[in-house]
Amino acid sequence: MPDLTLLAVFLPTFFFVSITPGMCMTLAMTLGMSIGFRRTLWMMVGELVGVALVAVAAVMGVASIMLNYPELFAMLKWVGGLYLCYIGINMWRSRGKMAIIEGQQTPSVSNIELISQGFFTAIANPKGWAFMVSLLPPFISVERDVAPQLVALVSIILFTELISMMAYAAGGKSLRIFLSRSDNIKWMNRIAGSLMLAVGIWLALG
């Protein structure tokens, strides 16, 4: 286990960073609005797996190698970003699996697609890699076994990420309820599509 003093510093630090609006939080809010809170949990599964891989890779030194090959990141960012932009455009036009269709409770996007969205958004975020490289190593003591420390820190990271994404998804769902009272489905799709486009552009150009 990490030193308790270090944990006391790490917990509020990472929670503050996690709750700050970012790509994954914006995605959670967008999906919460378009497909509802419960379905958005599938995206969170993929995102948490991606964040865990990035965190472990940061400690193992893989992240430093990845950051030295920007062309690899460029490929991941552009592929993921273009895919999210494609979904956003379809949502804005009230088309595609993610769009809200009148008379249909939730879009028919599959759980695998949702998991994939969360996973690739997490691992294709270069700022996430850079953050893990700079944040995690100082909290790992070389005088103790690395594995237990890594498990504890990654568990804290995943917990704070989950709580933050759930808060954003719940906010998106509340916005959907507010807009649906006016039967303004077209605007719901346009708002969600615009947010999805923003995440895609953010991912590609960030």
UniProtKB/TrEMBL annotation:
Principal subcellular localisation of the protein? membrane
State a single Pfam family of this protein.
LysE
Please give, as recorded in its UniProt entry, the membrane topology of this protein.
Multi-pass membrane protein
Any idea where this protein resides? Cell membrane
Q: Which UniProt keywords apply?
A: Cell membrane, Membrane, Transmembrane, Transmembrane helix
Transmembrane segments in this chain: where?
Answer: 6-29, 41-66, 72-93, 146-167, 187-205
Q: Does the keyword Transmembrane apply?
A: yes
Q: What is this protein called?
A: LysE family translocator
